[in-house]
Amino acid sequence: GRIGCLMAGCCYGRETDSWIGIYLPAVGAKVIPTQLIESIFLLLLFFALTALLFRTRINGFSVYLIAYGIFRFVIEFFRADDRGGSVIPWLSPSQVWSVILFAVGTAVLVTLLVRDARRKDGAPTDARQ
What is this structure's pTM? Predict the structure, then answer.
């Protein structure tokens, strides 16, 4: 999806004159390619989650939610396109969703880790038992 945004010239970053910037005709300026940065991050996250899947018992979905929530929260500081307002005035809508993703991912991960710890101790994992 972000490669499509790069080709369409939307979801762009702030203007820059650094080496990392690319010229977007739709914007008429050299900008931080946040779309490309996000695509690279997601590819790297895919490889990390694949490694987790085969080497550990950690829940990949919760790790994805946590990692993407953190990444998206940070990358929003480098974006410059209008994304509208949010319920929290100093945060973009994507940053609000990032906080939610992080919280849900953390809750799922902690819940699963506690459940696995109880199973190892032999304690019941369900209150009905």
Answer: 0.82
